[in-house]
Amino acid sequence: xxxxxxxxxxxxxxxxxxxxxxxxxxxxxxxxxxxxxxxxxxxxxxxxxxxxxxxxxxxxxxxxxxxxxxxxxxxxxxxxxxxxxxxxxxxxxxxxxxxxxxxxxxxxxxxxxxxxxxxxxxxxxxxxxxxxxxxxxx
Length: 138
Prior knowledge:
The chain is mostly helical. It has a domain at 48-138. 73% of the residues lie in helices and 0% in strands. It has 3 helices and no strands. It has helices at residues 2-32, 49-84, 90-123. The radius of gyration is 21 Å and the shape is elongated.
C-alpha cells in the first residue's frame, strides 16, 4: 500500500510537470521542425533524390536533439528527485535506480542508431555537414 501511494504521489507530480514542459517547449519543437527540406518552396530549387536523404537526417536530428535529449534530461531529473526524496525507502531508491538505468540504456541505443544512420548516409555520399550533396541523384 505504501509503494502504491508513493507511485500515485509521483504521478501527481510528473503528469502536470510533463504537460507544463510540453506547453513551454512546444514553440521550440515547432520552430525546429520548420524547414525539414531545403527545397521545393517558393524561390527554392526543385527537390531531387538527395533531398530525401537530407529530410531523413533532419527528422532524425530533430527527434534526437529536440525531443529525446530533453526527455532524457527530464527523466534523469525525475529519477534524481525520487532518489533524493526517498528518505531511506528501498522501493523508491530501487525505482530511481531503474529509471536511471533504463533511460541511460535507451539513450545509448538512440545515439547508436543515430551514429549508424549517419555512417550509412556518409557512405551514400552525403557530406558530413548534411547541407550539401555530393554526387547523389546525378
